[in-house]
Amino acid sequence: MKFTKTLLASALLSTSLSAMQVHAADVPVGVKLADKQELVKGGEGEPATLDPQKIQGTPGSLRAKDLFEGLYSEGEGGKLVPGVATGYTVNDDNTVYTFNLRHDAKWSDGSPVTANDFVYGFQRLVAPKTASVYSWYAALAGINNAQNIIDGKAKVSDLGVKALDKYTFQVSLDHSVPYFVKMTVNSAMYPAPKQAIEKFGDNWTKAGNLVSNGAYKLDTWIVNEKMVFVRNHNYWNDKKTIINKVTVLPIKDSTVEFSRYQAGDLDVTSFSGIPTNRYKELLKTTPDEVKVTPQLAAYYYDFNNQQPPFDDVRVRKALSYAIDRSIITKYVTGVGEIPAYTFTPPSVDGFTAKQPEYAKWTQAERNAKAKELLKEAGYDKNNPLSFTLLYNTNDGHKKIAIAVASMWKKTLGVNATLENQEWKTFIDTRNLGNFGVARDGWVGDYNEASTFLDLFKSTNTSNNAHYKNAQYDQYMAQAAKANDPAPFYQKAEDLVIDQDMAVAPIYQYSIKRLVKTYVGGYKPNLEDNIYTRDMYIIAH
């Protein structure tokens, strides 16, 4: 073994682990706790599922963080903290990770969480019968045979995972992935309760059936109204958990969410819970409740690269150039967002994408080039380009769509008809490619450039733009095996955005949340991995 990772400082990871960094509600000395420890928070829309291996999007992932726990979790400032794992060892070439699991980790039904539960969870992720839209994540992590299993060329049992014993879980990779442990924070790599899944099938995530291993368990799920979680007293760190009950409300409209927050119906809003038109007012009236922090996330529009006329790069570039990103971030969103001309955010560790040529132009120059390109593609006032712009139901997405459609109409004479769909329908429509242009957003699963750039690989099932370029795939394959992947990441950025404009980057997100002053333990980080188990209610 090259060296051992326990809870001591790590030389390999930029994030350090220390014995004091365990998830718990650490209440400062002198703070008096309220008798009633209950939290109500915004949950974006209604999630399509609570199945960790099938979750897609923030509505599901933010709920999963309360219900389940993987090998590691993320703390304030992005620090890795132990979850079910207490530490790990890695071999000389960083391709075999052996995790030591805590012996007191239990499922909500009282049964132990074992290495076999992680083996089962990882295998479910890649199994074709699971049909997980996140199966590519295992291949990105470099797990042996992951892609072969996804492609139907190998058996699920051939995946590079094994239980060495009840509390020792080993993962073998086909190449060095130095950020592999960071990737285990994502819900796709959570353990799975085999007995419950085999007993209830697709209904295993319903209230009364769901078996979870996080700080909370599911008590109630009333679709489009609320989810209620209660303490999982079998959780290994339950004695350090303070909030007894969590109610999550599926509110899509930030204005509605803000009104309910003001009325006292919510203690914590969703990550987009501050309406733009109230931001400056709130900074004056309740500054202690405003929590705006950077987010490792991109907001963008997908062009369906396989569908005319969006299979023409001239059309894609014209539409992208004509979006005035500064107007969007200043007047439409207006709460700390940054105009985006690259896909990879600048906050990513180890790689800063250089700005493409079009980012250096004035908006007038971009508009002029857009007109030229669209005319070359055969569209003008006599033959206007018309299509539908699809977005999921949300007041913020609607405002952006209205603004962008207006820009396209004014600059290019383009007729974009707006269409909104509820979250579950929207992701199905987008996954199937039944659209021309669609709203999209991506929050990094870990702090490394591949979490963004891997999206555009031909094999990635989250490649909603349906972009396919063999040269791009090659650049990403080279990056995965390089000691210094940055040059290949840059080539990939140049190709997918500057040359092909597979998607139109619009802005880099900020987390804009309102948190009542009586809520303690709110620990923001770039990936917005927020856990209720860290929080507590102060007497007020």
The description of the largest β-sheet is: 6 strands, mixed
End-to-end separation:
53 Å
CATH level-4 homologous superfamily of the largest domain:
Dipeptide-binding Protein, Domain 3
Radius of gyration: 23 Å
Number of domains: 2
- Number of helical segments? 16
Mean pLDDT metric: 93
> Helical amount among residues, as a percent range?
25-40%
GO biological process, one term: peptide transport
GO cellular component, one term: ATP-binding cassette (ABC) transporter complex
Keywords: Signal, Transport
Main location: other
Describe the protein.
- The protein has two domains: 3-28 and 55-206, Dipeptide-binding Protein, Domain 1 (Dipeptide-binding Protein, domain 1), CATH 3.90.76.10; 295-509, Dipeptide-binding Protein, Domain 3 (Dipeptide-binding Protein, domain 3, Roll), CATH 3.10.105.10.
- It is 28% helix and 20% strand.
- It is built from 16 helices and 19 strands.
- The protein has helices at residues 58-67, 115-126, 136-140, 146-150, 180-183, 194-200, 254-262, 279-285, 313-321, 325-333, 363-376, 395-412, 423-432, 450-453, 470-481, 486-499; strands at 3-5, 38-42, 72-74, 80-82, 85-90, 96-101, 161-165, 168-172, 216-222, 226-231, 245-249, 290-303, 338-339, 386-392, 415-421, 437-443, 503-514, 519-520, 536-537.
- Helix 9 packs antiparallel against helix 11 and helix 15 runs antiparallel to helix 16 (486-499).
- It is globular, with a radius of gyration of 23 Å.
- Belongs to the bacterial solute-binding protein 5 family.
